[in-house]
């Protein structure tokens, strides 16, 4: 038993109203990458937050290197040699890269309360050299892209030289190239004898990187298996507790020739450069590219959420003056942000309110009084047709799972009578079971004649869902691929086509 | 991943577009104001008047430095004006009423300020009250205490000529010592904010409090410390205003908090936290006193002075918002 780095047994944890963990177990050996998988709400993050001192357990024991420990704070976990990379970015944007990495343990100068900024930057530089990361220690974090910020998080966690490294979905914001880089670092740590916990929704990754997999479901431990001996299909069925079919679904029939949305010569600084495309009725248009290629920027500009320098947007062949999201909605365009919690939902309000939020005025009479009967009926109808899992339309959206939250956002835009739906990373943070439901829903919407733009960083998702794929790189569209001709390799080639385009 | 040269270019960009830009703008505005009033008003361009601007800035400047710390954390301290009054009253009680020596009275005044600040910090960090509400309550607590302790009557420092001499006396260039005390305090505050652990955590708190907590920093303790610093500066301001008025006036002080916050904001301290500087705050404090004194010298009635300074604050915050939007 003493060869175990971490051994957690009979761990339970409750939050008001929720039994998050029920006598769970988990173990980690030195020099192994141990994947922790399960649907959203299965308790993976909670379990790891107990191990890293963010939450306190209600019951159970945690042994670290054979010794029973009580991890009372993030600091206590750090002192033991346990560090965590959080799911959400946890950085101080106003501070520099180096200041972020060494926050809480800054090198001191001649006097104990004076900071030694030079030593600070030097330590960061050494750390980056060791890890082969290209980052400027003195750059302000807010000036970096999401992927670079993620690398700062990773470097920060690594700088503790911990024996245990927990990565809670570190790859969610990274592109495939950066993921390779991260995996290289993980292997390096493993060789050094560290134990790594890897939480991810991308099951393909597990095969690449992990030695063992522990599956959790509904706050309970299901099983731990050798990765090499388990198929992805069997892991999925352990996660969902049933066998689900992951077969490629049929794409909706041939698309309508009618052009619903046309974008001509859209420009905005260096972020969007001369972007033009057409979107047809009943079509799913995928937009692919590396993080920071300008995909989100393009759709935000089309939606009127960001200003643009030049360019035209035509809806049904008519020039549409879209300067604000209100204009866009009036033209029947809906935008489903990648960050549902910040931009898509009023989290503390109920399902009903969220569903009618974008079209509230159409539910009110002239005096402004809302027809509650109709809002209820509308909400109920959508809950049923989209199979939103909620105890009722009075439930606060905050208490729903990621997949069901996404469905509420979709219901909101359907209520607002939009015919053009822009999905930005529609399945980010959504578990495997719910993902295929979202896919089915997208297909249904397209079949009903909605025109859909879908941005996704996951190549399998783009390939599986799109009729056509636009690939972007550094603000430009570098290519368009039909469903039949698109492959991961061709998309990646276009997504990294930097010099060629610049010369053209 | 970007290569380091482009990131250092990005850094240069943030240097000129960041709060440094607001500081340069503020300094430019101050120079313009001074030139403008000097051009249209002979009495404005006298040595006595410049001296009085310096003296007038001292109290507000010191208050504003403390408030800057709090605003950089993303908080607010509305209690500094009346805390200042309470501290002056404490000084009066100790020195005039109890006849204690100055070396007891002055630390007592500072301590009273730090104590009020600590209370603010505890209520905000531990009881989790919004800073706006907590310090609004404390504004009245301090104001009430000042009136109770003084029996709503001024306490004069006439028995202590060395108090006036040491603060309002003119040792160099005929400039009263309060001005040098303000600059001394500014240097100290600048060093604390930029070079010490406290300063680093002040920015970290304002930038992302949760991230700071998850990094293992004792967020509550540092937050309390920041509010204590604000109270401490209010205590120093209390001493300065006592010397200037040669008395503790229990009814003065209300409204000073707004001038202090305005000075910080005009100087580029962001009300959403994470950005700010002492240099900017001092420039902001000078803009406010130059504007107030300049307007009264050219004969603008007090009521209009209020309207104008109010609009200047709104304009400064708006500029800050525009700047932020352009960067995004």
Structure, briefly:
The complex is a heterodimer of chains A (504) and B (328). By secondary structure, chain A is an alpha/beta fold.
Topology:
The complex is a heterodimer of chains A (504) and B (328).
Chain A: E1 6-15, E2 18-28, E3 33-37, H1 44-51, E4 59-64, E5 67-69, H2 74-80, E6 82-85, H3 97-101, H4 117-131, H5 146-158, E7 164-168, H6 176-191, E8 195-199, H7 203-209, E9 212-217, E10 220-226, H8 232-240, E11 259-268, E12 272-280, E13 284-289, H9 295-303, E14 310-315, E15 318-319, H10 325-330, E16 333-336, H11 340-344, H12 351-356, H13 372-385, H14 402-415, E17 420-424, H15 432-447, E18 451-455, H16 459-465, E19 468-473, E20 476-482, H17 488-495, H18 498-503
Parallel strand pairs in A: 3-8, 3-9, 6-7, 7-8, 13-18, 13-19, 16-17, 17-18
Antiparallel strand pairs in A: 1-2, 1-4, 4-5, 9-10, 11-12, 11-14, 14-15, 19-20
Chain B: H1 4-17, H2 19-40, H3 47-72, H4 80-97, H5 102-125, H6 131-150, E1 155-156, H7 161-168, E2 170-172, E3 175-176, H8 177-195, H9 197-207, H10 209-214, H11 219-245, E4 247-248, H12 256-266, H13 278-297, H14 302-327
Antiparallel strand pairs in B: 1-4, 2-3
Helix pairs in contact in B: 2-13, 3-8, 3-9, 3-11, 3-12, 3-13, 4-5, 4-6, 4-11, 5-6, 5-11, 8-9, 9-11, 12-13, 12-14
Structural account:
The N and C termini of chain A lie far apart (63 Å). Chain A has 18 helices and 20 strands. Chain A is 34% helix and 24% strand. Chain A has three domains: 6-240, P-loop containing nucleotide triphosphate hydrolases (Rossmann fold); 258-332 and 418-504, Rossmann fold (3-Layer(aba) Sandwich); 345-417, no CATH class. In chain A, helix 14 (402-415) packs parallel to helix 15. In chain A, the strands form four sheets. Chain A has a six-stranded mixed β-sheet with strand order 6-7-8-3-9-10, with helices on both faces. A six-stranded mixed β-sheet of chain A has the order 16-17-18-13-19-20, with helices on both faces. Chain A has a four-stranded antiparallel β-sheet with strand order 2-1-4-5, covered by helices on one side. Chain A has helices at 44-51, 74-80, 97-101, 117-131, 146-158, 176-191, 203-209, 232-240, 295-303, 325-330, 340-344, 351-356, 372-385, 402-415, 432-447, 459-465, 488-495, 498-503; strands at residues 6-15, 18-28, 33-37, 59-64, 67-69, 82-85, 164-168, 195-199, 212-217, 220-226, 259-268, 272-280, 284-289, 310-315, 318-319, 333-336, 420-424, 451-455, 468-473, 476-482. Chain B has a two-stranded antiparallel ribbon with strand order 1-4. Chain B has a two-stranded antiparallel sheet with strand order 2-3. In chain B, helix 2 (19-40) packs parallel to helix 13 (278-297), helix 3 runs parallel beside helix 8 (177-195) and helix 3 (47-72) packs across helix 12 (256-266). The A-B interface holds A 54, 73-75, 78, 86, 90-95, 99, 103-106, 108, 113-115, 117, 133-136, 138-140, 142-145, 147-148, 151, 156, 178, 181 and B 1-4, 7-8, 10-11, 13-14, 195-200, 203-204, 206-208, 210-218, 274-275.
